[in-house]
Amino acid sequence: MTAPDTAVTVSRQPDPQTDFVLTDAPNPEDVAAISDALDRFNIEHTGIADRRPLAVLVRDPETHQVVGGLTGRTSLGLLFLDLFYLPTRLRGSGLGTEILRQAEDEARARGCRTAVLYTITFQAPGFYQKHGWKRLGEVPCDPPGTSRVFMTKELTAPAGEPVRSR
Description:
This protein is an alpha+beta fold. The chain contains three helices and eight strands. It has a six-stranded mixed beta sheet. The protein has a two-stranded antiparallel ribbon with strand order 1-2. The longest helix has 19 residues, at 28-46.
């Protein structure tokens, strides 16, 4: 049995008849239905069926529980870096650099030419810049004075070599 949606609004719309559901708790099957339909649409228009998840996981050596890592996906020549987290005790050790390198190398192996992400000004834009990522732009968010920072990186150079700007 699934948990009921919270903050749900259902409204009837005129032609075509459609129900809208506004929720802050979509179930995974509904999210997958939208994602899979968009993937089919993209395949129909490009002839390319290459969307794949990508993750580099960091596990505690004793409990084998995931304590951090990176998640994202590759599609149509792009690496989308969605989430990247390391606990404070693991930061500054070079582990983050290795995780990012592994994700970028795998994206290259999958044929990706470019990577994209967003971070927040209080998170890690400097970390990404140190690894060759460039700022595309910023959008203010809360708290005041904070921004979402959108970044990109060309992946055409082999790992370990700097990527030159065009």
